[in-house]
Amino acid sequence: MDPKDAAKLQRSIDVVHSMTYFVPETEEHLVAAGLRPGRMCYFAGRAAPMGAVGPGVVAATFYNFNPELVARHLPRAWTLATPEAVVAARFRSVDAALRRVLGEETATGPEIAEAAALARTASEACTPEGRALYAGHADLGWPGEPLLDLWHATSLLREHRGDAHVAALLGAGLSGLEALVTHTATGRGFTPQAAQLTRGWTEQQWAAAEDGLRERGLLDAEGGLTEEGTAQRAAVEDVTSRASTAPWEHLGTVGGTRLAAIGTALTRTIQAAGVFPAGTFSATAGRTTA
């Protein structure tokens, strides 16, 4: 399979997972489980499948967050709620959010069941070697209900690709902050302002990273990618996609096309519901990979 086609298939279902980080149900249910409102819910919610890991592990696997920001919330989160309780609360929040956003008829309809089966089939070809965040999620059992099985499968596929992306960024010599700066410079995904705010980087840290990237010939004076910078980002995406084709090859062309069609329709519904705040993304809502 062409790696670019695999990347397109992944993007067609990404929003089903990424909406989790923006809907109010997530914080509502995780706070009910014992966590504090705000960033703690994000860090603990996404990391919980790996167990009661510390801030170093989370900063390493999430990659583009300021470690100082992570350390404000972990390991304290695990003194307030166990990872098992957080995982359970996260699934409850997903169920409530998807039912609200999609509507009960769609959420319990035959296309969700079909998409869940297809996405689960794709995820069967995911491998854990070198993919710590994916492996943690893969250790969780399947919920056993189509709507949640779909979300879990999209989570597995997303984290599987995300771990490969981190490896590609490391291979390209980009730190987490540098990866974030160059990603926003592509004009896709987060705006620079949203990236700084959500990832916890100061103006000074961001500016220093830009200066370093200019010295390496990757950014121009206006903060845009140079020809070399553009080529590097393209190479990173290619390496990522090549390491992430197995699930889609396993699913096959017919299954992939069908899952993409359902995923695209669900994405439109989710975006139309206003899940993603205005001004957060430059172009492609829901894409947060750096």
TrEMBL record:
<dbReference type="InterPro" id="IPR054058">
    <property type="entry name" value="HTH_67"/>
</dbReference>
<protein>
    <recommendedName>
        <fullName>SalK</fullName>
    </recommendedName>
</protein>
<dbReference type="Pfam" id="PF21863">
    <property type="entry name" value="HTH_67"/>
</dbReference>
